[in-house]
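Objective 1b: paired records.
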Amino acid sequence: MMLKAEGVSKRFGGVEALRDVGIELRSGEVAALVGDNGAGKSTLVGILSGAIRPDRGRIWCNGREVHFHSPIDARHAGVETVYQTLALANHLDVAANLFLGREKYLLRLGPFSILNRAAMRREARELVARTGVRIPDIDLSVMNMSGGQRQGVAIARAAGWGSRVVLLDEPTAALGVQETARVLDIIKALKRQGITILMISHNLRQVFGLVDSIWVLRHGQMVGSRDVRATRPEEIVSMITGVDQATGDEFA
């Protein structure tokens, strides 16, 4: 398994966000994490990304047990995360955003250091092409880009640095139809490169057309997983809601 969690639990004061949760992601798999609001999806992704410390539980990455104390630890293990907020620097261009925290220098002299902007632009073009992101001009400031292009930059930054696993928190939630299609194409391109992807989504129609497996959280517990080829939207909605006769219309 590329990424595995077992017995993960987390409380926030009197609220039990997760209870004995487990998940397994195969190498090169695209999986969806679904559940109603408050089910614990963001908390689980926060733990897998190193942003949240679990109260209990174990995590393995590429067959090795890991202990994430921060997102930097997760990054070193090959796990990157793209949150809904994207965490982009709006006033900087594409290349500068892709190299945030990974800047290349011609000269390192503390506050007087000189950036190697030419090398960063060159590698940024290669990275954008490799991840399938369509950006007309990498010198364009992020603030002047569309929502889909901004999401593409965030995904390219996460996936372009030798990442084994990319966690996506609602990657298309705020996008229109055309921009959503572009982001889904990027995810498919990452899958072809063998990158393992876990995405939070509320859109079951989108999920069934994209992922290999679906994991369902309800009230802080993992109630099950299904291979997409062996299930239907109605079954997934029933697992999400706990209602036996769900129609699937709620998440269409």
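Objective 1b, second protein:
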Amino acid sequence: MSRFAKVNLLEVEDSVAGRVEGMEGRFGRKHLDSRDLGVSLFRYAPNLRSPMAHSHKEQEEAYVVVAGSGRILLDDEVQELRTWDVIRVAPEVIRAFEAGPDGLDVIAVGGPKPPEGDGVRATPSWPDGH
């Protein structure tokens, strides 16, 4: 592992491209040659509600809203998000995002990731049923 690494997240390939219309996901961990730290950019088009959710077996995450606003679903609880909010999420909590009228850009920061991965896909269950 190198002593340091630099990457522009907007120049990292969009790993979500074509799978969810209006959403981008750019994962920086491998580009940073990081053993213990993942940093990713997620961008949601205005009013987009993510059709997928996830939790983790081990990895704790924090999300930093860097542009726009929206909401995050945490299990069955909804939290409003605005620019520069930071929210930490325990591994077992199922989470999904919904962008506000100006879209939502979120930096996700995660800790060490097991070699076999630990993401668990889930279906979001928003309280309003949509």
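The chain has one domain: 20-122. Residues 20-122 form a domain with the Jelly Rolls fold (CATH 2.60.120.10).
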